[in-house]
Write a structure and sequence with these properties.
The structure is a single chain. With about 240 residues, the chain is mainly alpha-helical. The protein contains ten helices and no strands. It has helices at about 1-25, 35-60, 65-75, 80-105, 105-110, 115-120, 130-150, 160-180, 185-200, 215-235. Helix 1 runs antiparallel to helix 2. The radius of gyration is 17 Å and the shape is globular. The termini are far apart.
Length: about 240
């Protein structure tokens, strides 16, 4: 049971910190409004790193259905635990997004722009193009998973340094590719909060844009599975 609890709580904290920074710098009447994309990108890296440090020993700190599935594909994670992990991750993401809404309710109420409100919860493309948007998410997730697998090649890597490297991976992907689709690179990170946006009583919220959900579901899974297959095929 502990691994599932860890995945739930870890994903919840990830979303509180990750969606929280977007609310913090984009919503009206926030004390950090205008902080910009650099603050967002660094904070998202920290949002992944901190729960990874807390729960890494308990669950492996996946917090990402695409990563969980890919690790099962390459045999480094038990298939019997995949469904439980994915349910815990989506549930944690939903609850985390609900917490962000409660924390920033006054700022949501003070913000009129519907896209800004939706952007706190989930991602959107700068240029809508289904094929290229899926490709962007696939490439970003490929780099994430391939880099995580590649840490096995770092001599005498300590657990703490490994978690810091994950921070670097997230920040690197965000700063290089984030302007394309917002780099969800994690179906739970996008679809859990998107569901929260759909059901929460957010003032003047508008559409949750579920049509875009296929991008953040399909792209990361393709990229993650491709990463472990290529990594496994290289004669290290």
């Amino acid at each position: 049971m502990l691994p599932y609890i860890a995945e739930f709580l870890g994903t919840m904290i990830l979303i509180i910190l990750g969606d929280g920074v977007v609310a913090n710098v984009n919503l009206n009447k926030s004390g950090m409004k205008g902080g910009g994309t650099v603050q967002i990108t660094i904070a998202w890296g920290l949002a992944v790193m901190l729960p990874a440090c807390i729960f890494g020993a308990a669950s492996g700190a996946s917090f990402n259905p695409a990563l969980t599935l890919a690790l099962a594909v390459d045999g480094s994670f038990a298939w019997s635990m995949v469904l439980g992990y994915i349910v815990a991750q989506f549930a944690g993401a939903f609850v985390g997004a609900a917490v962000v809404y409660l924390l920033f309710k006054g700022q949501f109420d003070a913000t009129e722009d519907q896209a800004t409100k939706l952007g706190v919860f989930c991602t959107a493309p700068s240029i809508p193009n289904l094929g290229l948007n899926i490709f962007s998410e696939a490439v970003g997730t490929f780099i994430l998973v391939f880099a995580i697998k590649g840490m096995a090649n770092v001599p005498e890597l300590t657990d703490g340094l490994g978690k810091f490297i994950v921070f670097g991976i997230i920040v690197s992907i965000g700063m290089s590719l984030g302007g394309l689709t917002g780099y969800a690179i994690n179906p739970a990170r996008d679809l859990g909060p998107r569901l929260a946006h759909a059901v929460l009583p957010i003032k003047g919220k508008g559409s949750s844009n579920w049509g875009y959900g296929v991008v953040t579901l399909v792209g990361p899974v393709i990229g993650a599975v491709a990463a472990v297959l290529l990594y496994g095929a290289i004669p290290w």
